[in-house]
Amino acid sequence: MSKKNISRRFKNASSLIADEEYHYQDAIALLKKTSSARFQETAEVHIVLGLDPKYADQQLRSTVILPKGTGKPVKVAVIAQGEKVTEALQAGADLVGSDEIVEQILDGNISFDKLIATPDLMPTIAKLGRVLGPKGLMPSPKAGTVTTNLATAVQEFKLGKIEYRVDRTGIVHMPFGKSNFPQEDLAANLLTIQESIERNKPSGSKGKYWQTCYICSTMGPSIAIDISSLKSSVPSLAT
């Protein structure tokens, strides 16, 4: 598709969106309506939080399991030994091994979406930091990717567990499904994200925590959400 056609399509989609904050259900309906690329676009949420992550007590990093999944198959690799190899394979891991997996990663001969390791092998994978660190794939306890409970970890990531963190400007960027998901599935995922971010609010947060919230499809325009509509839909956050 030419840039001219992309520009025209984006302009037409943008014309459907008013300069206002929408109830999250209406915003999701608009996201689906303005998604018109020739591939299944990812539904994205971008949340500006009142955090300054240069301070340790204002950093946000956690994981959340999207109840309706991400819409993307997740390839999970596991670095383990002994009986843990069988545990990982039975749980559905795509690649399992130890030294051989490490060497394949260093050589660039292996691809995966998540890498999980047992704590005892952390010294073995330390050398992977320079390769995996910049890609956000290095196993870590905070991300739930360093664990002895491989079965649970593998199954959760396969089901739609994703990691999120606030970037240096105080924004969280997350996928919450595909544009062809039913509206109720996208809503369920979005509300789960809202609840998780609220539950993991850093102790050093000051002032207004949620600043703005926008959703969009991969190639679509941004749609502003009325944050109060999200909170009022989650009983534990409505008060």
From TrEMBL:
<dbReference type="InterPro" id="IPR028364">
    <property type="entry name" value="Ribosomal_uL1/biogenesis"/>
</dbReference>
<keyword id="KW-0699">rRNA-binding</keyword>
<dbReference type="GO" id="GO:0003735">
    <property type="term" value="F:structural constituent of ribosome"/>
</dbReference>
<comment type="subunit">
    <text>Part of the 50S ribosomal subunit.</text>
</comment>
<dbReference type="InterPro" id="IPR016095">
    <property type="entry name" value="Ribosomal_uL1_3-a/b-sand"/>
</dbReference>
<comment type="function">
    <text>Binds directly to 23S rRNA. Might be involved in E site tRNA release.</text>
</comment>
<comment type="similarity">
    <text>Belongs to the universal ribosomal protein uL1 family.</text>
</comment>
<dbReference type="InterPro" id="IPR005878">
    <property type="entry name" value="Ribosom_uL1_bac-type"/>
</dbReference>
<protein>
    <recommendedName>
        <fullName>Large ribosomal subunit protein uL1c</fullName>
    </recommendedName>
</protein>
<dbReference type="InterPro" id="IPR023673">
    <property type="entry name" value="Ribosomal_uL1_CS"/>
</dbReference>
<dbReference type="GO" id="GO:0009507">
    <property type="term" value="C:chloroplast"/>
</dbReference>
<keyword id="KW-0694">RNA-binding</keyword>
<dbReference type="Pfam" id="PF00687">
    <property type="entry name" value="Ribosomal_L1"/>
</dbReference>
<dbReference type="InterPro" id="IPR023674">
    <property type="entry name" value="Ribosomal_uL1-like"/>
</dbReference>
<dbReference type="InterPro" id="IPR002143">
    <property type="entry name" value="Ribosomal_uL1"/>
</dbReference>
<dbReference type="GO" id="GO:0015934">
    <property type="term" value="C:large ribosomal subunit"/>
</dbReference>
<keyword id="KW-0689">Ribosomal protein</keyword>
<keyword id="KW-0934">Plastid</keyword>
<dbReference type="GO" id="GO:0019843">
    <property type="term" value="F:rRNA binding"/>
</dbReference>
<keyword id="KW-0150">Chloroplast</keyword>
<dbReference type="GO" id="GO:0006412">
    <property type="term" value="P:translation"/>
</dbReference>
<keyword id="KW-0687">Ribonucleoprotein</keyword>
